[in-house]
Design goal:
alpha/beta; 16 strands
Length: 435
């Protein structure tokens, strides 16, 4: 019990009741149907004055902190995404996981913890979700209970609603800040070393076809954004994504996004459709945010037919696994090709695989820089150039280790030199790297 004789639970209920009351009166006073279409601080300030007046009218005894919290939460409900706003503004949060209105979890510093943020009920959470997806032309209802969307800041959202989600709407948000991490940030965090960075920069400039492989949350998209900064400014780049999340820095970029079918089951535009169309748009490079299906074969064919320097990501746990995953996705997409032919396509198209992994305790590392060489009989031949070796787990439960150069000089070095890329002669000498 608090000093007023009212329990914290009762206080929260009274606060929520007051917030609903004032928000309802605000709706009565204003035409809030147009708020989502309006921008600018002046409108927010005007509505803030109305809320302040309503606060003073309905409960003049609120203390200063409660009054300010009430005003901000009502503004968030009016202009933004309600309780989500608090989590979206927190720069220390990487992922938001909502399992129904009362069970909200976040990831901070590689660890998952429960948040004290809650939604009023299922309907409240659905209203916020509908506000998000409607802004990007998507919908979510009983006939379409699964949705991928993006928030205005580029963060990616996946949602599942009842009847598929049994305990209420479920949302997963992968946050992407307005200022994506750059090369210096990743070096500072120890994701890789300066030696590895030099090779990757040279490979992108020399138009080496590259796949970034890794598990969920390993940092594939972040690394792809970073590597894209090395693309020449005069190159025409076409990006293809299911839910746009890439934050490339070039000027000459055409961004394409797939489209799900409408309520009648028509109008779907797949990644395969977009890749085939992109080939008619005079691209210098094609970037697929993530290969998930039959478009993988079209991507390989594009890499093989004059679109060098293309990039994509794939969900896989190792460079060797990336080959198997691509084979499986192409086969499941209905393409009938012998396995050997698929592997020959892969071996002739892909030059480099960058494996990123999220290790125990949260650190994200580039664990393999692997060159794809050729085919020998039925096997794709690859060689590791740089590796991360895990040495153990520290007192905080975080994995640690070291990077090393294997002593292998990439076979594509002549392409780097032809592109004017000069690397130190001892860059690939077998040794432990500092970083």
């Amino acid at each position: 019990m608090s000093g007023t004789g009212i329990s914290p639970v009762d206080q929260n209920m009274a606060f929520d009741d007051l917030k609903r009351l004032i928000h309802g009166k605000l709706v009565e006073k204003l035409d809030l149907t147009r708020v989502g279409d309006l921008e600018g601080d002046s409108l927010r300030r005007e509505i803030r004055l109305v809320i302040e007046h309503l606060c003073d009218t309905e409960n003049p005894l609120l203390n200063r902190s409660e009054r300010e919290r009430l005003i901000e939460e009502i503004l968030d409900e009016t202009f933004g995404f309600g309780p989500l706003e608090l989590l979206l503004k927190d720069q220390s949060i990487a992922d938001i996981m909502i399992n129904g209105p009362k069970h909200v979890f976040v990831e901070k510093d590689g660890r998952i913890e429960r948040s004290n943020v809650v939604f009023r009920d299922n309907q409240h959470l659905l209203q916020i979700l509908d506000r998000i997806v409607s802004k990007v032309g998507r919908r979510v209802d009983e006939t379409s209970p699964l949705v991928d969307a993006r928030l205005p800041d580029g963060s990616r959202l996946n949602a599942v609603i009842p009847p598929l989600a049994l305990d209420g709407p479920s949302l997963t948000i992968r946050k992407f800040g307005s200022n994506p991490l750059g090369l210096e940030d990743l070096l500072r965090f120890g994701a890789f070393t300066p030696e590895i960075a030099m090779l990757l920069e040279g490979a992108i400039k020399a138009r080496v076809n590259t796949i970034i492989s890794g598990g969920t949350g390993s940092g594939k998209t972040t690394l792809l954004n970073t590597l894209s900064s090395f693309i020449q400014t005069d190159h025409r780049v076409i990006t293809i994504e299911d839910a746009a999340e890439l934050q490339l820095q070039q000027e000459h970029i055409l961004r394409l996004e797939t489209r799900p079918p409408n309520i009648e089951g028509r109008g779907q535009v797949t990644a395969t459709d977009l890749v085939k169309n992109a080939l008619r748009m005079r691209p210098d490079r094609i970037i697929i945010g993530e290969c998930r299906g039959a478009e993988s074969l079209d991507m390989l064919q594009a890499m093989n037919t004059g679109h060098e320097g293309s990039l994509t990501t794939i969900h896989a746990n190792s460079p060797r696994d990336a080959v198997s995953r691509l084979e499986t996705m192409i086969t499941m997409g209905g393409v009938e090709l012998p396995l050997k032919a698929l592997r020959q396509q892969f071996a002739s198209a892909v030059d480099l695989i960058i494996q990123v992994n999220r290790l125990q305790g949260g650190p994200r590392k580039v664990t393999h820089i692997t060159e794809v060489l050729n085919m020998e009989q039925d096997t794709v031949i690859m060689q590791d150039i740089f590796l991360f070796i895990q040495d153990g787990i520290d007192a905080d439960g975080r994995a640690f280790g070291h990077f090393e150069a294997t002593g292998v000089r990439p076979a594509f070095m002549d392409r780097l030199e032809a592109a004017g890329v000069r690397l130190p002669s001892n860059l690939f000498a077998n040794r432990v790297l500092q970083g």
